[in-house]
Design a protein that fits this description.
- With 168 residues, the chain is an alpha+beta fold.
- Helices cover 33% and strands 30% of the residues.
- β2 and β3 form a beta hairpin.
- The radius of gyration is 15 Å and the shape is globular.
Amino acid sequence: MSLTLRPPRPDDEATLLRMHDQLAPEGFMFLQHDGTWEQLLAAVRREARGQDLAPGRVRCDFLVADVDGVPVGRVSVRHELTDYLREIGGHVGYAVAPEHRRRGHATAMLRESVALLAAGGVARVLVTCDVDNAASAAVIEACGGVLEDVRTRGGETKRRYWIDVSSV
């Protein structure tokens, strides 16, 4: 298995839209922009450059997790933290499509994301998960995450972990 993180491409549309629909019932917004596929790709490129950011958004790399040519999930790597991200969202958001779970993909995705942030000068990475998501907590802990606390904001309760990039 060779997992890589890459920007979404035009030919990913059907697969990523399907994943978005699969994860919606779990309350996870897989795709973070509306509009046509071309508009979504343009928004992803702008966010990666930090251009024309919507209020509350930060420079962010939206990357497809690809295993041997097959998209299995996605990560959002946020290069800085707003107040909301510091409390609830964190530096990294990730999701694996249901049919690709329990194969180590989430752990590999988080490790790669931490490495990207470290290369950009981030020394400590904040990663959060729903308080009842034991699988995600295990992934974060496997990547060196140390639980700081549990916080609630606006009806969302999250476990907050810090990863020292030197430990990954």
